[in-house]
Amino acid sequence: MNRPADIALAGTTLVLASPLLGIAALATKLGDRGPVLYRQTRVGKDGVDFELLKLRTMVVGAETVGAGFAVDRGDPRITRVGRLLRKLSLDELPQLWNVVRGEMSVIGPRPTLRYQVERYTAHQARRLEVKPGITGWAQVHGRATLPWAERIELDVWYVDHRSPWLDLKILAKTPLALFSGTYKGAQGGWKAQP
């Protein structure tokens, strides 16, 4: 999407979703008194790091225990409120602010972690040619239920074929995709490439 469309869509959605975001934030805070937002360094366009925002769905310090960054269904680190937020994908709403700030787009490949990017092949690194998105071509074709390499391939396909028409198609398919799987298994769906 172009920048004006990103700002208009993200800004409007933030305003409309603000009551829901407020309720979710309050529930997160009351759930275990920890911080409402979870901030994590992710890799954006051209390999530049940025701070991704999410509603916190796991216990404080979760990435340092258990499976680390990987999250699987039934993970004991997920809070009671967090389970609901993840199921409804409400934990992603703060990323609309990342879009407004220009670090993300509404549509594009999901932003990944630095250790994953460092293992990309030259072909896979092409997914960094565009801003990361809240939703994208891989998201509407199976999200984290797909093998990692297949998701990256779908992202690279999007980079090569992006258009306003394709973006509208992704937006139309996103609501249904929200109800598909979000868990990635023991390694977060990531396996080092040979």
Describe the structure.
This protein is α+β, with helices and mostly antiparallel strands. It is built from 6 helices and 4 strands. Strands 1-2 form a two-stranded antiparallel sheet. β3, α4 (114-117) and β4 form a beta-alpha-beta unit. The longest helix is centred in the N-terminal third of the chain and has 30 residues, at 3-32. The model is unreliable at 183-194 (pLDDT under 50).
Q: What is the H/E string?
A: HEEHHEHEHH
Strands in their spatial order, largest beta sheet: 1-2
Rg over C-alpha atoms, rounded to the nearest angstrom: 16 Å
Q: Give the percentage of residues in beta strands.
A: 5-15%
Helical proportion? Answer: 25-40%
Describe the biggest sheet?
Answer: 2 strands, antiparallel
Overall form = globular
The helix/strand class is: alpha+beta
Mean pLDDT: 89
Count of helical segments? 6
End-to-end separation: 34 Å
Low-confidence stretches: 183-194
Count of beta strands: 4
Please write out the topology.
Blueprint: H1 3-32, E1 37-43, E2 49-55, H2 80-87, H3 95-100, E3 105-107, H4 114-117, E4 133-135, H5 148-161, H6 164-177
Parallel strand pairs: 3-4
Antiparallel strand pairs: 1-2
Helix pairs in contact: 1-2
